[in-house]
From TrEMBL:
The keyword Transferase applies. GO terms for biological process: methylation. Residues 114-302 form the O-methyltransferase C-terminal domain. GO terms for molecular function: methyltransferase activity. Keywords: Methyltransferase, S-adenosyl-L-methionine, Transferase. The keyword Lipid biosynthesis does not apply. It comes from the Eukaryota. This is O-methyltransferase C-terminal domain-containing protein. Pfam families: Methyltransf_2 (PF00891). It comes from Riccia sorocarpa.
Length: 320
């Protein structure tokens, strides 16, 4: 119970607790069981469907009936909690116009963070900076010789505010760096010596370099989008005869045998990325080594090999 300031009346907040503790997990579960995020992705580029349309896909793909009336209630509730968005469209049917609720994924996650949730963005940046320390350790342990003998420019693709470039620039003063991310993210990035911040989209073009790094970006996208990103990375290495793209990502570890604590951590990190990604990031998922290799080869790389891993951090290299 808490005090309602305006009326001085004791307010019962138990319904809100029940909503968060019971209602939200149940609604999220129902949406996942019915495969709603993937169904919405599958109608790209429309990306907004009514409950009735979603249920039609459920019947076609899963062979079981789903009730549009019930799904609408679930989707409305998930929209209230920011998991999906809803718009109302007018649709013509044989007896006139009807107002129909259409559901889509909520605002693109990274724009939402920067534009609407700066406090959450700060937590997110802090968390990723922590993960960059691990990423840096992995890169400098495995590629120290390569960085020492490399000449030219390293590009961190989707590097956020430049944590990886900062660490590498301090350790390898003979190299120059580009930290590449969305313009709205780059706007808030701090100045870093020998690091140029470049704003743009990896779906359009990636700045050229002698070595490219991409950390925790591919897991945010479906296969089609990953292929576009990888093709642009391959183009950015066009001048290099032995160029490499170093990929740090989370592999799909759902089928791994779990014996050590480290394995449990790795599998949990991977499962979290898979679950969270599919809800807020339009078709995101973790991938097996074979799936990464298939995408890299399709993008024009000649090979992709697994290099090393820490729990939750898988390092691979794609070769030109
Ligand atoms: C999970 S974060 C990883 C950030 C950083 N690489 C790290 O591991 O700390 C994904 C990054 O991709 C960036 N991103 C999303 N869409 C992008 C686009 N179209 N072009 C370039 N960067 C993008 C985001 O702004 C975000 O910084």
């Amino acid at each position: 119970m808490s005090m309602n300031e305006r009326d001085g009346v004791e307010e019962d907040s138990s319904w809100a607790d029940a909503s968060l503790l019971v209602g939200l997990p149940a609604a999220v579960r129902a949406a996942l069981v019915l495969n709603v995020p993937k169904i919405i992705d599958s109608v790209f580029p429309i990306l907004a469907l009514s409950a009735e349309e979603i249920c039609k896909h459920v019947t076609e793909t899963q062979g079981r009936p789903a009730s549009p009336q019930n799904l609408e209630k679930i989707m409305d509730y998930l929209c209230c909690n920011g998991i999906f968005s809803m718009t109302i469209e007018e649709e013509e049917k044989n007896v006139g116009f009807f107002r129909v609720k259409k559901y889509s994924h909520s605002k693109f996650f990274y724009k939402y963070l920067v534009e609407e949730a700066p406090e959450l963005q700060q937590i997110y940046v802090r968390q990723l900076k922590g993960s960059s320390t691990q990423g840096l350790k992995l890169l400098t342990e495995k590629y120290d010789d390569e960085f020492n003998t490399l000449k030219g420019r390293v590009v961190d693709v989707g590097g956020q505010e430049g944590a990886i470039c900062t660490g590498l620039a301090a350790k390898y003063p003979h190299l120059s760096f580009i930290n590449f991310d969305l313009p709205e993210v780059i706007r808030g990035a701090p100045r870093i010596s020998r690091v140029e911040h470049v704003g743009g989209s990896f779906f359009e073009e990636v700045p050229s370099g002698n070595l490219l790094i991409i950390k925790f970006c591919l897991l945010n996208w479906n296969d089609e989008s990953c292929l576009r990103i990888l093709k642009n990375c391959r183009k950015a290495l066009a001048q290099e005869r032995s160029g490499k793209l170093l990929i740090i990502d989370r592999m799909d570890r759902s089928a791994d045998t779990v014996t050590r604590d480290e394995d449990v951590k790795a599998r949990t990190a991977s499962a979290f990325a898979n679950f969270f990604g599919s809800l807020v990031l339009n078709g995101a998922r973790t991938r097996t080594l074979e799936e990464f290799r298939g995408l890299a080869l399709a993008a024009g790389f000649s090979a992709l090999e697994f290099v090393h891993n820490y729990p939750g951090f898988d390092l691979m290299e794609a070769r030109v």
